[in-house]
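Hey, resending since the last one bounced:
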Amino acid sequence: MLSIINYNLNINFKNIKHNKNYMNLIKKYLGIVGFLLALIGISIAALYKFNGTDMQPLVEISFFVWITTCTISSEINKEKPKKWWVYTVTILSLVAISAMLFVYY
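The C-alpha cells again:
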C-alpha cells in the first residue's frame, strides 16, 4: 500500500513540473489564441452574412473573447500581475457572454 502512495506522489510531482511549462505556454500565447478565435468567428460570420444569414451574435462574442484574452494576457505577462484583476475580467466576461447568449437565443 505504501508503494502505491509513493508512486502516486511521484506522478503528482512530475505533473507539477510539466504544469509550469504549460503555464508559460499559456502566458506566452493567450493573446494570439484569442485573436485567432476572434478571426475565425468573425470570418464565419462574414461568410454567413455574404450568403444572407445574420450571425451578428457570433461577431460580438468573438470580439468580446478577443478583448478579454488580450486584457488577461497583458496582465499576466507583467512582472507582478494582479490576480484579482485577472479573476475580475474573467468572471465579468463570462457573465457578459452568458448574458449575450441568453438575450440572443
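Residues 1-10 have pLDDT under 50 and may be disordered.

Sorry for the duplicate.
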